[in-house]
Every structure is written in structure tokens, then in C-alpha cells.
Amino acid sequence: MKGEEKMKKKNGEKLVEMKIPIEEIENIDELVREGYYGCRSDAICDIIRRGAVQLRSRYCCVKAKRSKI
Question: Which of 7, 30, 35, 66 has the highest CB neighbour count under 10 A?
Fold first, then answer.
């Protein structure tokens, strides 16, 4: 997985805190508006699953359950 990740425990589950660039979030909104994804959450999960996360100077934090791929 690209980028930094911090493991956190919450309710007995491991969570990964990921940093996604603002530019990627803006692209997600556009893809959802155009109907490529049903919602933002689906688009973000797809980005995480594909490992397309890169650290940049501007980012948003997104928490997602770590899955075995």
C-alpha cells in the first residue's frame, strides 16, 4: 500500500488512517456526479482497493477498515 498508514484500534477492529490528496477527492465528486460511482464512499473504497493513494502537501484523512486483498 502506498503512503503512510497509522494503525488504530477501535471496538476491537484495526483501522487504517489514509491520506488522500484534495485533488483526488475533487475527482471523486466529479465521477459520482457523472454516474461512474453510486456514492463517494464507493469511489473512495475503489481508490483504496487499487492502491492509488499518493501523499501530497494537501490531503484529507479517510478512515477505512483494512481488508485482505
Answer: 66
Sign of CA dihedral 4, 40, 37, 13: positive
What mean pLDDT is predicted for residues 55-62? Answer: 45
CA angle at residue 30 from 24 to 33, to 5 degrees?
145
CB atoms within 10 A of CB 53: 20
**Count of C-beta atoms within a 10 Å radius of residue 46:** 14
Number of helices (H) and strands (E), helices first, in the chain?
2, 3
Per residue in 10-58, pLDDT (tens digit) is 444 555 566 666 677 778 888 888 898 899 888 888 877 766 544 433 4
pLDDT of residue 47: 76
- The alpha carbon of residue 23 and the mean position of all alpha carbons in its chain are separated, in whole angstroms, by 12
